[in-house]
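Any chance you could type out some protein's one-letter sequence along with its backbone structure tokens so I can compare the two?
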Amino acid sequence: MIVRDAGGAWQVVLQPEHAELSEEVAQAWAHVGPRHESVILASRRHDDGWATWERSPMVDGEGKPVSFLDVHVPAHLAFYRAGIAAITDEDAYAGLLVSMHGAGIYQQRYGADPGLNLTRAPEAQKLVDAFVVEQEGSFSERMAEAGVDDELRLADYHRLQWADRFSLAFCLREWDEPGEPFELGEFRFEPVAPWRARVSPWPFTTPELACALVRRLVPKRAWSQSEFREAFFGLPAERVEIGLVE
């Protein structure tokens, strides 16, 4: 779950719903490589492993929904391995990209996102290190199976990261009212209206991109685990229309 304090409520976006927005971004991305269909698939499925955890989403000791950066790391490593394996069965190259993404979560996207940290990773550092070594050790074999070279897989990995990060920008920030411009790596976002932003340099094939985010607004209270599990999926899922303009 991606959790944001929305004042009187917590905005919660489930990982597969965040990934649907990532897919829309990837589909519209300009300057793509020859295997972009696999990038789109990886964008749609890169967080599939979370579906197991999100069948019974958790709250912390204060009764707040647990966000993805605060998850128990051994569980995260286990379900992410399962997600990588399932995606690889469908598309070997998409599986390579998601394997890179999984390892990159613990490597700050290989230096591209220094602020990315799972808060509980130090508690399981040996397991984290083993997971990264395991995934990185599979890259050469995965590349051979997929028939790609280092140049392409690195370029497509970064395309996947941008699809992920553009989606997260709408999951983690306040968009119900226009806000201040902000930088996301090489891109500048200028909110011009609720859920609408100007992006430069423009990375898409069309002069405007319309997409959507599914979210739930959870009443702000101290939830017990059982109460939250029972109540969460009864909350209405709201589809918010997003506009990106040049």
The chain has one domain: 2-175.
